[in-house]
What we know:
Layout: H1 8-26, H2 32-36, H3 38-46, H4 52-60, E1 68-73, E2 76-85, E3 94-103, H5 109-117, E4 123-129, H6 139-142, H7 144-162, E5 170-177, E6 186-189
Parallel strand pairs: 3-4, 4-5
Antiparallel strand pairs: 1-2, 2-3, 5-6
Helix pairs in contact: 1-4, 5-7
Amino acid sequence: MPSPKITGDEFFSAFQVEWRRFCSQEHITGLTPWRDGRKSWTQKMLGNPNGFFHRVMYRLIRDDRHLEYWTERYSVDALYMGGKSLHNNNPSYPLEVHALIEHEFDEDLETEMWKLLHWRAPLKVIVSYDWAEDEKTNKAKQNFLRDKIACLRDMQSRVNAFHPECSDTEYLFIMSYREMRDGKLSWIRA
């Protein structure tokens, strides 16, 4: 019997709880991702076994849901997998892909969305970073989040017009939020 699916609400709740713990343990401030550099920050977020998304996964495990954490498999940043093997008892071919996670430090969310649109999973997550409020000095930065989400939804609609995915597939967009460039890094569902 398949494991229960992870919902967007469940994922976002685990994400927020783990973020609070992660910030206090790692001494995260608003500038940490930019100060540490892309490679170091990505390792903190995606790393196995102690990366942020690995820790979020542990908050989603239940008695009836076994999960394994994989990174950089099949060009997807992180995957929550489970279930029996579909091929020769090889754990590289699990039955259940619970969640696909793309973490994008830069502005190219469209590439990440394209990958998610063409994979099968009940939950597909993009985590990225909006401009701080005090950095939104022009229309492009002021409208960045709204325009990006509209573009991603348009991509989803166009791909589904060609070949619809399951109606219960859920997309979760988690974006950083900061009042000031060096302010506290918080997260919103977009």
